[in-house]
Amino acid sequence: MQQKYSLKIGITLGLVSFLMLVLAACGSTVSNNQTNEKSGTDTLNGQSQAVAMREYVDATGQKINIPANPQRVVTTQYLDAMLALGVKPVGAASHVLEGDYLKGKIDGIADIGNPTNVEKVLELQPDLIIATEDTTPEVKEQLEKIAPTVSVSFGGGDVFKQLQDVAAVLGKDKEAEQWIANFNKKAEESRKKLAGKFKKDETVTIYMTYGKNALRVYGARNVGHVIYRSLKLNPPEYIRQKLAKDPKYNFVYDSISMEKLPELSGDRIIMLVYDEATTDGMLKEIEQSALWRNLPAVKNHKVYFIKADPWFTYSPLAIDQSLDEAIKMLTAGTK
């Protein structure tokens, strides 16, 4: 009788021990699942590893869980800003890889095309994708299946806001503020170098010739950022009035006809020649016209010709190099 009783106790204790092991395993599984929901998972060498995640609200208002410390980033636009922050993406769009001013900084970065080659992006196995707010819904949907995809506004602010927005995605806010502070200090030093080289009320007009028949006059974005904002040179009255109504510097340029040249041209002219087609097209037509030859800036040999690279690109490293070129150009005389 005692043997049967002992046997029953043994069986009972065994069942209890087994149930405790099962519950412990279940508890461990639940705990891991909760951690994954908060941290996310990644796979390295066939093993699952926890990845810290955080919630981010992008330019479209969408809430997205993104890696707190992304390691493999692909961007469709913000290569320049990323490099300024010390982050080298694994892939970037074709058009942002073309600038000579980035030479030596983009080695090893894969070209994902323009428009975006989704298959190429997939091959790169990114853990984060940074796109623009105007990415088509079809492309964005495909990108979101590959990795968390954040939209950053390109036209929603100036070049500094762009840098800050990209930094917020990458967790590089301090680096962005430091870059901006360094640039502003450089701009202040550059203004001192120009002291005495410009008369008090002297004005500068920025034009761009594009292709066979396009002529633009610029405001304080893109080409105008360095001239009007960094160096604080005086725009012609037409541009001054435009900027006075535009505290956020959203005004980029106006397309104009050649007949507007006498009205808009300041004491000095900066002419951006966009491409080779321009040289034999719109620029040639302008230079052969009496309107151009009679401009005071032309008669006084105060016309400066610049190339699209880096001046046309509106991003941090581009304006930094443009500032260097502006000082060399404006202190050396006309070209």
TrEMBL record:
PROSITE patterns: FE_B12_PBP, PROKAR_LIPOPROTEIN
Highest taxon of source: Bacteria
UniProt key word Signal: yes
Compartment(s) of residence: Cell envelope
Residue stretches making up the Fe/B12 periplasmic-binding domain: 70-334
Keyword rRNA-binding: no
UniProtKB keywords: Signal, Transport
A UniProt-annotated Pfam family: Peripla_BP_2
Family matches, as InterPro entries: ABC_transptr_periplasmic_BD, Bact_iron-sidero_bind
Signal peptide (from-to): 1-24
Stored SUPFAM superfamilies: Helical backbone' metal receptor (SSF53807)
Family stated for the protein in its record: Belongs to the bacterial solute-binding protein 8 family.
Protein name: ABC transporter substrate-binding protein
Species per Swiss-Prot/TrEMBL record: Paenibacillus ottowii
